Amino acid sequence: MNSKTKAGLMVWSILTVLLASVAAQERSQIVRMDAVRIGLTRDEATLSFVSGQAGHFLVQQGRRTSDGGMSSVVFEINMQGKHVGTYDLDAVLGRKTPFKNFTVDSSGNVYFFLFSSPEDPDPSVPVVYVFQQGGKFLRKVRLSGNLSPHQMAISPDGSWLVAARSVTRKQEPQSAQTPRPLLYEFNPDGSLVREFPLPQSTRTEYPESPWPPARAVWDLSHLLVDSSGNLFLIHPTARPAIFKFDASGNLLLQRRLAELPGTWVITAILDDHDRLVLDRGLVRRSPQEPLPTSQARVLCVLNPFTLETVVELEPSPLLGRLGAVRGGEMFFLANHPALGLELVRAVVR
């Protein structure tokens, strides 16, 4: 067998493997298995949906108030669609407030984090309200430092990790504004442990961002912590950037995914094997912008050690918003006009 024949066979073997891989990927699809109804009024706005503890989910619902304003409450839902907890920050604050940022730890405790407390004389002090699993209010904690928190996660050792935009006081020189740390670690009492000096590459402004430039530069859509304390930061644009840090704040990996015009990282979660799962869907830059004509939606599963794509799927919009991936099953929250809110279980086949 001459060298040309050997080379041709080698190329053919490689093509065969690639074609088989592509065919297998095309055969993979997300199949809806079953669904349970959730006893929440369907005309309320579903503001957020996150995975909780012991197979539970946290659903934030917005409600119109009698004066035309907006309030919101977080409900804890079990796998049977039953309410098992209510987290009402408005009752603690004594006033109605709209969408609230919150996170949950491995014990099921819920943390609401605000830029400032309405009842504090100093409006620039960020605060965290801690609730026990089930809905009992535990305490209010003021965070030390001049910052505006946007994302928060609880590490396995119980420390608080906050992605934030530094707030520069008027009397500070302009040079003090750049560069500013973006990630902070706090003790549960609110005292600052350290600031993570993030690389300049995590602060790149993305022109395709639907948000104003100040937010495009500083805000991250998701902050996740795996079981080993590693951190994942995500810029959620049409060509998302992903950064992985170890527990000491050292940059381990960074990667940009292929561009999907008009999309945004709607949801980013870690499955029970610490793999990063991104749900990339269509967004509008403003309410006045017409709805996209494309139906592009891609769900990516990334290898946690390389950030390379392991699985890429195209879920139906009817499945709703991705909330969790556990034991090979995916769970979505769907809002159907005729059926109301449903918790949908699906598998990949």
Task: Kindly describe this structure.
The chain is mainly beta and 349 residues long. 10% of the residues lie in helices and 42% in strands. The protein contains three helices and 24 strands. It has helices at residues 3-27, 89-93, 213-218; strands at residues 30-37, 45-51, 57-64, 70-77, 83-87, 102-104, 110-114, 127-131, 137-142, 147-154, 160-166, 183-186, 192-196, 222-225, 231-235, 241-245, 251-256, 263-270, 276-282, 298-302, 309-313, 321-326, 329-336, 340-348. The strands form six sheets. The protein has a four-stranded antiparallel sheet with strand order 1-24-23-22, with no helix packed on it. It has a four-stranded antiparallel sheet with strand order 2-3-4-5, with no helix packed on it. β22 (321-326) and β23 (329-336) form a beta hairpin. The longest helix is centred in the N-terminal third of the chain and has 25 residues, at 3-27.
Beta percentage is 35-45%
- Compressed to H and E, one letter per element, the order equals HEEEEEHEEEEEEEEHEEEEEEEEEEE
Biggest sheet descriptor: 4 strands, antiparallel
Widest β-sheet, arrangement of strands? 1-24-23-22
Counting helices, strands and paired strands, the structural category is mainly beta
Q: Total helix count?
A: 3
Write down the overall geometry. Answer: globular
Tell me the span between the first and last alpha carbons: 42 Å
Q: Give the helix level as a range of percent.
A: 10-25%
Quantity of strands, as a count = 24
Low-confidence stretches: 4-27, 170-179, 203-218
Gyration radius from CA atoms, angstroms: 22 Å
Mean pLDDT: 76
